[in-house]
Amino acid sequence: MGSVNLRWMALLLISIALTGCGRMMEDLKPSNSDKHHSGQIAPDFTLPDTNGASVSLLSVLSGTTVNGVVLYFTMWCPTCDVHMSSMRSSHIPIYPTIRFFAVDYVSGTVADAGHSELSNGYAGSGFTVLADTTQSVLNLYHATMGTTVVIDKTGMIRMNEDYKDDRLTAVLTGLP
Amino acid sequence: MQNRRLKILCAALLLGAASLLPSLSPSISWAGSCCGGGGGASLVLPKFYQAMADVSFDLERYNGFWNQNGKYTSDPAGSSLRQYRWNRGYAQRLSPKWQASILVPYVWNVNTYSSASHRTRGIGDTALNLWYEALEDTSAWKIRGLKDLAPSMTIGPSLVIPTGISPYDGVPSDDVTGRGFYRLDGNIIISKTLHPWSASASFSYGSYLERPVNRELDYVTPYRKKLGDRSSASISLSYITYLGTGGDALTATASLSEMREADAARDGNRIDNSGLQKDSIGGTIAYSSTDHAWGVRASWSHAIKQDGWGKNFPATDIYSIGVNYGFR
Cβ B75–A76 below 8 Å, yes or no? Predict the structure, then answer.
């Protein structure tokens, strides 16, 4: 193995090693396309829950004992389970005037959503599971796996981003 | 649970129905889609080879997951989640004891749910390896002295480069082909051959480099993230059969692999329940030609879909076929 070959190989390896840096620069300089809907009025929607009842956002918010709504978009994955489990233990018992909805956007039928709710251990958990069978609400909120939306009593979006335990706590605590 | 694991391990080893080609170190394969993809085995040159090219094709089929408590849970009804990987590897000898290799996967995610389907593709995370052959195995047919008992030992660092599409690129989960972090590993492979048997053990310990994050599939308040240190271990037992008098060899190996990743950190603070665990059994049938220039293999890595065999991780079966050509 000649020294020339070794130099070329070293150069090649360094070039390859640096290719991973390009994607990280986006995080140092966030682009303008980043979604951040706080302060906007939440678009209304109506979805069936796993019991077959029709749930409308506006009608939920108009309830006298409801001070806000949390939408969590789930595809029933390991990460989703960590998030939902955290909400079940850390948020649902502490904020009784907040309604927690798990929006299942991967089940094509209400029956499939009900099956996932049961097999993942969330039946009777404090979450109301909504079946977004056409992914209409997913698209409406530009959501993806783990997106957590907090909507206050007036229908204003207070948070629309990936789930973070302490961030959710801060937003819910700050609700009027 | 421990007894059950032991029984399965013993059964797997005794069956001898699996193998890893001697030039490939056993390692855990990384699940894709929701948790990042790309990684494969490390390419290690056999003695007397100057270089080797390796191409393999993987099918990883998702079948449920283990939650943060280790409870096995089924995937949503009506879903079919698959990842295909085309792995291209090349190893080059740098000196009699030093060698380097690169592995670049190309990934296809084919995910179908009862509500929608997604097909995406892209390059996965690239792995660079540097190996030093610290000890040499004489691969004895019969033990005549102490030196015949000496195993081979190969050590070296590896670097995983986040060339794949990660959750931090602001893409839907179905588009993910990589983890988005640099990781530096220290690796050791110990193996011993006493024809026709061969056993090996490999260990890796790696640390991810911290990076800034402003997306995690969706928007997040910018912070600095560091994934937890990752350790993996694998043991395997092989049986080598020579076909006819020409020297063509068929190798069958069984293996057991474990992978652990500690909790990640956000701005230096531990993120609860973010660690991972996956245990799997596997095996390969490998054929090598008389002059060992060509090698062909088929392998299977199987996750035990029961509680306790993983944590926070998808349960998958990985089917792989591969071919390599060595240059002397």
Answer: yes
Write the single-letter amino acid at B213. Answer: V
Q: Which residue of A has its CA nearest to B93?
A: A1
ipTM: 0.81
Contact between chains at B77 and A107 (C-beta distance less than 8 A): yes
CA gap A60, A38 in Å, rounded: 20
Domains in chain A: ranges and CATH: 46-173 (3.40.30.10)
What is the nearest CA distance from B190 to chain A, expressed in angstroms? 26
Which of A105, A35, A112 minimizes the C-alpha distance to A74?
A105
Spatial neighbors of B161 by CB under 8 A, at least 6 apart, are A16, A17, A19, A20, B125, B126, B127, B128, B182
Distance from CA of B161 to the nearest CA of A (A): 6
| Strand B230-243 versus strand B269-270 pairing type | unpaired
- Asked whether the beta carbons of B77 and A107 are under 8 A apart, the reply is yes
Cα(B302)–Cα(B283) distance, integer angstroms: 9
3-state secondary structure of B181: coil
Q: Nearest Cβ partner of A20 from B94, B182, B266?
A: B182
Q: What CATH number does residue B250 fall under?
A: 2.40.128.130
pTM of the model: 0.83
Residue whose tokens read 């978009």: A73
Number of domains chain B contains = 1
Number of neighbouring beta carbons within 10 Å of residue B195: 12
Per residue in A88-140, pLDDT tens? Answer: 999 999 999 999 999 999 999 999 999 999 999 999 999 999 999 999 999 99
Structure token digits, residue B214: 């402003």
Q: How far is B86 from chain A (nearest CA, A)?
A: 18
Structural domain boundaries enclosing B286: 2-327
